[in-house]
Every structure is written in structure tokens, then in C-alpha cells.
Amino acid sequence: MWPGQQPPGGEQNPQGPNPYQQPGYPQQPNPYQQPNPYQQPPAGQWAAPAAPGPQPPQKSGGRRTTWIAVSAALAVVAAAAVTGLVVLGDDEKKEDAAKSASAPSASAPAQTQTQSPGSAAPEDNPRAGGEIKPVIDGWKTVVNSKRHDAFDIPPDWTVNPPGLSTGFADDKGQPLVTMSGTAYYKPDQCAKNDSRGGAGTKGAQGAKSMEEAAETEAGNWAIAAFDRKQTGHLDTTKATPFKNDHGITGSTASAKVTDVKKTDKCMTDGKTFTVTYKDTNGDLATWVLYADTGIDGEVSDDTVKKIMSTLRPLKSS
């Protein structure tokens, strides 16, 4: 087990303070200029230990670089290198963080993938949901046994294997945000190991409220996925109540990043949507969807709302 990790099934790092209750950065100019309900730890205060991973990062040549690590242990990661990104608790970004080996290109957000033992590489797998049927005819189902939810995606999306967590990394390859039970929109369209969007669920234990978690995750994923260098403008909505026909109640928020400095052909502006709710174990969880904007085939807001309407609880096993 790597230093700073917990055995499988652990969610919080007992040696560190609650990441939702960290002291703040010194004030500095920030083009985003928005209220931040979380406080960021000072740079260098704490971070995950660095260690060689079982597989090296796979260079994409585009705005994102994918690395895959196999582990069942958890590690705590601080995103202190990113000024506007708030450190969150109890989520998949802890997994395999200590296994990231080398730094991807700093020109764009780095997309990460972590795989649990026995799971396959990403592929179009409409049966990844097992016996759980889609509630929209012709769509595919994504199942997250860890977060006890399922949701449907349109047929032109790709369901990732159940053991695959995805997210975005910093310049050193350390994950900033991750989630499990995931799907991609148009993977590899612009560059290998790149996608035009994605969705999944992460933990939110430690948040003071559903509203807080929904707003913060919307902003965090927008920064990490589209504007890690913060060259553009971020607009995050206030959380509003969410309820659908499948019994999911909680809070929802969204964010948009515009006017991002484009340093390669795959960089775009983008948008994020979140729903924070209590899962069947009574734990806070946040469903996240991010998507490129200003491209041919952009995921419409109506499609996002339709996907959100399919979010439903699963009984914990």
C-alpha cells in the first residue's frame, strides 16, 4: 500500500483535515472573480506522494493526456497548483493519485483514467449496465455500484467499463477531479484519449450542504476540464432544487467557461452540470456532466436535462 493510502473501501484520509474545511489562499487577481464557498489550502501545504505507476501516461497529442493505473487503494490529492480549483473530500480523485508517473503537456487539461483490477479498456459497451434497463428506449444505461445510481445516455455516447474512473490532471499528472460510473461523448474525435464530453458520479462527503457541493463541483469541473490556466471567464449558477420522477431529490447547478485561450485545435469553451443528492446509504454524492461548447454536435442543454431526468437510485448491495 502506498504512503498516505487507505485499504479498499476507505473514503476519508484519517491523517488529513477535512478538505472541505481548509484555510484559504492569499488574495490575488483572478479573471474568474466569483464567490467561492470553499476555501483552498495554500500551495504546497499537502499533496499526494509521487510514485511510479504501473503504466506510463499515454500521450494524446491533443488537449488531454490519459494515464491508466490499476489499484484498489485510495490516496488524498490536493489541487493546490490550480488557483481557482477547490479541494474536495470523499471522491474518486483520491484513487491511484500516488501512481501517476510523469507530467503531461501543460498546454491543455489532462484527462485521466483509473482502472480497478479486472476491468477492460474503454470501449462502447451498451451492456455495461448489466440487467438494469434504460428508461428511455434506445438509450444506454450507466451503472455506478459505488455511488448507488444509474443514468441513461444517448446511443452516440460510450459507456465505460464499470471499474473505470475518469477525470482531469494537473501539469504533473496528479488528478484534480475524478468520478466513477462514467461515459464519454465522442471519444477520440479530436485526438486520441480525448472526448467531447463525459458524465459520472463522485462522492461529496464533507460538504456542508447539497447546494454547496453542487455549485462547487460545477465550477471545479469547468476549470479542470476546460480552463485550468484560467485564461477565460467562468460563470457558475446558484444551486436550485432538483427532483425527478425516479426519486432523486437534491440540488443542481451549472457552469460555463467562455473566451478560453485556445493553444491547440482540441481546446474549447465548455459547460458543466451537477446534481447533488443523498444515495441509498445516506451519503452525499454528486453527478457531473461536462461538455465542449461551440463545436459541431455540441450536447444541447435539452439533452443534458433529459439525461438528468433518468438519474435514479440503486439499492446498495
Automatic annotation (TrEMBL):
Q: Where is the composition biased (Low complexity)?
A: 1-25, 41-50, 99-117
Q: Which residues form the DUF8017 domain?
A: 133-315
Extract the ranges annotated as region (Disordered). 1-64, 93-134, 192-216
Q: Which UniProt keywords apply?
A: Membrane, Transmembrane, Transmembrane helix
> Which InterPro entries does the annotation name?
DUF8017
Record carries keyword rRNA-binding: no
Task: Indicate, by first and last residue, each region the UniProt record lists as having compositional bias (Pro residues).
Answer: 26-40
Q: Where are the transmembrane segments?
A: 67-89
**One Pfam family for this entry, by name?**
DUF8017
Q: Does the keyword Transmembrane helix apply?
A: yes
Q: What is this protein called?
A: DUF8017 domain-containing protein
| Species of the source | Streptomyces morookaense (Streptoverticillium morookaense)
